[in-house]
Amino acid sequence: MPASRRRATLATVAASAGVSVATVSKVLNGRSDVSAATRSLVESLLRQHNYVASAQRRGEGAALDTVEIELDADLNAYSTEIVQGAVRAGAELDAAIVVSIRTNADRSGAWARGLVTAGRRALIAVTGDLTAGQLAALSRAQLPLVVIDPLNLPQAEVTSVGSTNFAGGLAATQHLLALGHRRIAYLGGPATAACNQARMHGYRAAMEAAGAPVPPGHVRTGHFHYQDGVAGGAALFDLPEVPTAIFAGCDEIALGVMEAARARGLRVPEDLSIVGFDDTQVARMASPPLTTVRQPLREMGGVAVRTALRLAAGERVDSHHVELATELVVRGSTAPASLGLGSTAPASPGLG
């Protein structure tokens, strides 16, 4: 293979050898748990890609490949998981990860050029809402972009990483229906957010399949914040038909609903079942522990870094949008529909 103008990464060598990045790292570190044939092949490719020479140059002051992760708000349980996965992938791929917090107002015309001047090889935007002008600026600067959980539906040429949000919303609602709940509300994030729309459509699909009507006011949107859960939960409890179960669009919203329920004297899960989305640390620390849809956030961060570095190296990606599988995690915040306060009809046959 012809040598690249840019410094080869562990991923480049691993792809050439047909082995994992971890195997290449083991060879570099002199580990013994690699077969002689594999070691010989990897060492040969390291020389061919001039990887060892690059490592020597680094000791003389050359920088690592640097990928910037831009957040649109302060770190929270959701973004911390993504950053953790990105940092781990960066270590495996011999790349530096820089984290910044930047709003749309901070993305001026010089923003993209400034990233390139600072030595960034690629940009990862977390829940970004990038404008057409900002996308054009990145394109002019030839700075690859990967978006995680985009708030707006990305253009076809924008590479993004997400999860199976529709399937997750479907599974969460089917779980509540199987427990006998019929008055199930959805309390989500921004109405225009692609991930929120998918989760809400999964909820609606499950309700429609079960023949469970969605009363007025039982679908609400706001932001993916704890306070939105508190306010949204209080509003739901004021409705003429109070829901006996709530599917929240993220774990923070779910915890806000728990607080709103506590303020009304409602017990979780005896009087109200709650399902979240993400499976962050707060879900496991909640009281009771939160039933939620696990979104593989650390894996999403890792995929985004690997994809960004491939784009920076001029490689093609198999798909402009990657979705990782979600999984329902059942804990203590959901229970069969109560026969007392807010009792509901039994679940339809076949749900469960």
Report on this model:
The protein has 352 residues and is α/β, with parallel strands linked by helices. It is built from 13 helices and twelve strands.
Number of domains: 3
- The helix count comes to 13
Beta-strand residue percentage: 15-25%
CATH classification, class level of the largest domain: Alpha Beta
Q: What ranges have pLDDT less than 50 throughout 5 or more consecutive residues?
A: 1-5, 52-62, 339-352
Number of strands: 12
Helix content: 40-55%
Which structural class matches the secondary elements? alpha/beta
Q: Mean pLDDT score, rounded?
A: 86
Distance between the termini: 54 Å
GO molecular function: DNA-binding transcription factor activity; transcription cis-regulatory region binding
Pfam family, one: Peripla_BP_3
Organism: Sphaerisporangium album
InterPro entries: HTH_LacI, LacI/GalR-like_sensor, Lambda_DNA-bd_dom_sf, Peripla_BP_I
